[in-house]
């Protein structure tokens, strides 16, 4: 239950991303700065946290062992995740991006067969490829169905170009984020805690963000004070607090793909939090009765997903004991 609660808390802080990114876009800010400033601002805060825990040197030592792997999977998990999300905010409102982002629930489940787990047998430990969590995937479809219901009325008012440019980048991000996160968990094992892993991935992705910032400086000019401040808020709420909470939740269920899928399913709450945030901060219209019905479907899907994942884990434990 604790990983689920941590995932929901992470979803609350992640919602700031969709709300503020759209606010920055509406005020004339470039998606380039929205993306790069978040991770640049994250660095000093994460360094202070890790140094205060006396784990900084240990992190650098482990990063030096496989620097190319750190660069590769940090690029996938952070750059290919966040840059497309910010780019999509140029063409679609926050509610659509937050809704489309929930496809990561299915994306995470579809990635399961690409990973393996260690099983101890009489002949010693062996690597066994994970199976596709069909039951959990079905529950994920229920969650996505609720999201589709929420978007149903408003999506009809968007042009084809806005749908493609606002949706396709988010789909790419939905696969990149869980893939990079899981690969880094495999790479780090038990040697790094959540704070170290987040800082390590942020540092490894920093060269890409600095290059993007340089490109933005020559193409769109320097960011405004308002965008800089809003990016700072996103960095704290989404980049530091939400990322650490989510990574901590995934660490607690590391090695169990069914529970991991359940934790990733909690991110569907971002839609609910985004709706509330847009109502309060952006004066968005109150959702219709149909939209509230979609939110209810999301909640039901989350409960069922968590329940059946836990039930499957209990069955697996009983089989092993037998």
UniProtKB/TrEMBL annotation:
Q: Where are the transmembrane segments?
A: 31-51, 71-95, 101-120, 132-152, 158-177, 198-217, 229-249, 261-283, 289-308
Q: Which residues form the signal peptide?
A: none
Pfam families (alphabetical): EmrE
Q: What is this protein called?
A: Membrane protein
Is this entry keyworded Transmembrane?
A: yes
Ordered alphabetically, the record's keywords are: Membrane, Transmembrane, Transmembrane helix
* UniProt organism field: Heyndrickxia ginsengihumi
């Amino acid at each position: 239950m604790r990983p689920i609660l941590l995932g929901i808390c992470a979803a609350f802080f992640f919602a700031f991303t969709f709300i503020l990114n759209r606010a920055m876009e509406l005020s004339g800010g470039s998606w380039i700065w929205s993306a790069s400033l978040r991770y640049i601002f994250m660095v000093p805060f994460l360094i202070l946290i890790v140094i205060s825990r006396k784990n900084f040197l240990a992190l650098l030592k482990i990063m030096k062992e496989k620097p190319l792997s750190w660069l590769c999977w940090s690029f996938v998990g952070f750059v290919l995740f966040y840059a497309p999300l910010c780019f999509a905010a140029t063409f679609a409102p926050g509610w659509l991006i937050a809704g489309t982002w929930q496809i990561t629930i299915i994306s995470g489940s579809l990635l399961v067969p690409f990973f393996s787990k260690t099983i101890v047998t009489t002949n010693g430990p062996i690597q066994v490829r994970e199976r596709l969590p069909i039951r959990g995937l079905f529950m994920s479809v229920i969650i996505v169905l609720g999201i589709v219901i929420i978007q149903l009325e408003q999506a009809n008012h968007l042009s084809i170009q806005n749908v493609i440019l606002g949706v396709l980048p988010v789909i790419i991000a939905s696969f990149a984020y869980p893939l990079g996160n899981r690969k880094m968990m495999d790479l780090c094992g038990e040697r790094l805690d959540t704070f170290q892993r987040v800082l390590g991935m942020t540092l490894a992705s920093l060269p890409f963000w600095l290059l993007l910032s340089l490109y933005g400086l020559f193409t769109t000019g320097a960011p405004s004070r308002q965008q800089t401040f809003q990016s700072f808020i996103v960095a704290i709420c989404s980049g530091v607090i939400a990322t650490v909470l989510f990574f901590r939740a995934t660490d607690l269920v590391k090695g169990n793909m069914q529970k991991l899928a359940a934790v990733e399913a909690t991110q569907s709450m971002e839609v609910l939090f985004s709706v509330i945030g847009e109502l309060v901060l952006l004066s968005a219209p109150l959702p219709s009765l149909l939209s509230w019905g979609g939110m209810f479907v999301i909640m039901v899907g989350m409960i069922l997903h968590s329940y059946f994942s836990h039930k499957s884990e209990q069955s697996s434990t009983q089989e092993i004991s037998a």
